[in-house]
Amino acid sequence: SESGCLSIIVLGASGDLAKKKTFPALYHLYRQGFLDSNEVHIFGYARTKISDDDLRDRIRGYLGKDAEHVSKFLQLIKYVSGSYDSEDGFQLLDKEISQHEESKNSAEGSSRRLFYLALPPSVYPPVCRMIKKCCMNNSDLGGWTRIVIEKPFGKDLESAENLSAQIGELFEEAQLYRIDHYLGKELVQNLLVLRFANRFFLPLWNRDNIANVQIVFREDFGTEGRGGYFDEYGIIRDIIQNHLLQVLCLKVKVLQSVLPIQDNEFVLGQYEGYRDDPTVPDQSNTPTFATVVLRIHNERWEGVPFILKAGKALNSRKAEIRVQFKDVPGDIFKCQKQGRNEFVIRLQPLEAMYMKLTVKQPGLEMSTVQSELDLSYMQRYQGVPIPEAYERLILDTIRGDQQHFVRRDELKAAWEIFTPLLHRIDNGEMKPKEYQPGSRGPVEADELLAKVGYVQTHGY
Ligand code: BG6
């Protein structure tokens, strides 16, 4: 593996994402020995004029209970303040990074610079220009400069392409890591293994056996505290176009075979009370809930509806993939009404996979009942910690492994799917249906599911 000095620069260091996700992920990597304090230095950069200790105090509470290790980790962090579009700040930052590199590098060591943009996308272009101009690793000894960015990558196809072009002029695709943290979740990473390492699934994974697939994201809270951001984007841009779509297709080829969304195959919702938030406009049409049916036009999936569903302020917090199989031909036990076979992958909370299947009801009678084969991670892998998505993805950026990041062509294909619908919503052509906070969402969504062939199982 590579050795030498590693500088991790968190831009937007005083913001929410950095505090809640980026620094804690770095701390956990440090605790597990992935960040060697002889090599690593962390820089926080933001506009706020605060001291190193001020920044440390701001993030301390998010790191953990082990005061001694937390303190040691915090000592690795230095803060530099400056604006996002002026050279002065970035030159100062470069000076600090270089000083650290000079103090740490042995003759054969190389310099690695990882820039993590925990920032709103509007400042990506100026920040990238400044990094390119002032802060690249130019060491003769080798090394690299890498840039990590977060969604939203644009607001529609055109703005996303524009952003990609601006950043693409500055950096090679190999230097760019577009994070979608759903790709770092344990059970999402498990999908390819499940699919290709199990004889169970190989012959079944197609239109002949699968009736429909649902990818569902529910939150049991609203947009409290971030209404202003959310209202500009809405649930499709916040969750469906990225997180759920990434789960659907870990391959870009599938994305390019998605047909245009049909007029009668989506339902939009907005929870009652959403507009009471003072940062949300009174007339807002922004959906906080959406169910969208995608159709994949290829040999394997033609005719199988892929239902992407996401909502805020619903009855539960859950993310899952639910694969429903077709009816058993013949149905000699007359048990079809009890429900179909399903394979469910629960991404969170309480990671699990289970299969719904029909068994004989134990006892003297010959009757059937729906039961479950259940693999719950908490029970099966007791004591094995499941890494946070961000932890794993940041480690990948250090190792130079881009497979769990969003490629530029993938991003384009994802925007192509949703842009026509998003434009109609933005134009005010589409009014979301109102739903009660704490409910399942608009009833029209359940009706749509039934219409495209989802058969609800008892007890679900
Ligand atoms: C973020 C969205 O990307 O993902 C949030 O902006 C959402 O609205 C969050 O709450 C959900 O992430 P997780 O990991 O809690 O499912």
TrEMBL record:
State the function annotated in the UniProt record.
Catalyzes the rate-limiting step of the oxidative pentose-phosphate pathway, which represents a route for the dissimilation of carbohydrates besides glycolysis.
Q: Which GO terms describe its cellular component?
A: cytosol
According to UniProt, the reaction catalysed is: D-glucose 6-phosphate + NADP(+) = 6-phospho-D-glucono-1,5-lactone + NADPH + H(+)
Q: Which residues form the Glucose-6-phosphate dehydrogenase C-terminal domain?
A: 192-453
State the InterPro entries in the record.
Answer: G6P_DH, G6P_DH_AS, G6P_DH_C, G6P_DH_NAD-bd, NAD(P)-bd_dom_sf
Q: Give yes or no: UniProt keyword Secreted.
A: no
Q: Where is the Glucose-6-phosphate dehydrogenase NAD-binding domain?
A: 9-190
What EC number is given for this enzyme?
1.1.1.49
What protein family is recorded?
Belongs to the glucose-6-phosphate dehydrogenase family.
Top-level lineage group? Eukaryota
Instruction: Identify the enzyme class.
Output: oxidoreductase
Does this entry carry the keyword tRNA-binding? no
Q: What is this protein called?
A: Glucose-6-phosphate 1-dehydrogenase
Mind listing the GO molecular function terms for this protein? glucose-6-phosphate dehydrogenase activity; NADP binding
Its pathway is: Carbohydrate degradation; pentose phosphate pathway; D-ribulose 5-phosphate from D-glucose 6-phosphate (oxidative stage): step 1/3
Q: Which UniProt keywords apply?
A: Carbohydrate metabolism, Glucose metabolism, NADP, Oxidoreductase
* One Gene Ontology biological process: glucose metabolic process
